Automatic annotation (TrEMBL):
Organism of derivation: Ceuthmochares aereus
GO BP term, example: cell surface receptor signaling pathway
Location of the protein in the cell: Cell membrane
GO cellular component assignments: external side of plasma membrane
Protein name, entry field: CD86 protein
Residue stretches making up the Ig-like domain: 1-98, 111-191
Annotated keywords: Cell membrane, Disulfide bond, Glycoprotein, Immunoglobulin domain, Membrane, Receptor, Signal, Transmembrane, Transmembrane helix
The UniProt record lists the keyword Signal: yes
Coiled coil location: none
Membrane-topology descriptor: Single-pass type I membrane protein
InterPro entries per the UniProt record, alphabetical: CD80_C2-set, Ig-like_dom, Ig-like_dom_sf, Ig-like_fold, T-cell_Activation_Regulation
Length: 209
């Protein structure tokens, strides 16, 4: 996993137990088996076969056999394959391959609740709320509402809408909720954005009634 616009580190996991000289090797990286991301041949970087979008965006740490992909974007997500060949009496022979999957993460903004109605709210009148968060990746799992009064807490789902920016590929999410708040009861309303198991959740500031 790599954060958006940061450097992604992709490892070849090559033990090099034979302590082979880099000048006797050809190392290249492919993405989704179509694009050449990086190539080093006889110790020299080669750019002839590179996909244009990877030019000047890669560095190889030969001690750790790790490729650095600079300024990683959503379009860089995918499967990368590292192939190492040894120049052995003429024709090169593949001595190592490994694959890794790159996932991009972009932080969502803290969800914000907005009241959609205008004018003064009358007792037992429906409350129209919207909760929004933007600029994140990957697509969020769901957005729920937390409504607590006295000793009870409800978790209605609301109506969630997700949109994706055509250029940046980042997501924005909005959930709308229509509820009637009981009178003479202290009610707290928050909304919760679920990003998935490993990424956790984001919660809004509560809307106090």
């Amino acid at each position: 996993k790599s954060f958006l616009n940061h450097t992604a580190y992709l490892s070849c996991y090559f033990p090099n137990s034979q302590k082979t000289d880099i000048n006797d090797l050809r190392v290249f990286w492919q993405k989704d088996t179509r694009e050449v991301v990086y190539e080093v041949y006889h110790g020299q970087e080669k750019h002839d076969n590179l996909s244009p979008k990877y030019i000047n965006r890669t560095k190889m740490d030969m001690d750790k056999w790790t490729l650095q992909l600079l300024n990683a974007g959503v379009v860089d997500e995918g499967q990368y394959k590292c192939i190492i060949q040894h120049r052995d009496k003429g024709s090169p022979k593949v001595i190592h391959t490994s694959e890794c999957l790159l996932y991009i993460i972009a932080n969502y903004s803290q969800p914000e609740i907005e009241q959609l109605h205008t004018g003064e709210l009358k007792p037992n009148e429906p409350l129209n709320l919207s909760c929004s968060s933007s600029g994140g990746y990957p697509k969020p799992k769901q957005m729920t509402w937390l409504i607590s009064h006295k000793n009870t807490t409800d978790g209605p789902m609301g109506h969630m809408e997700v949109s994706q920016d055509a250029i940046t590929k980042l997501y924005s999410v909005t959930s709308k909720l229509n509820i009637t708040v009981p009178t003479n009861t202290l009610t707290n309303i928050s909304c919760l954005l679920h990003l998935g198991e490993q990424l956790g959740s984001l919660v809004s500031m509560p809307l106090g009634e």
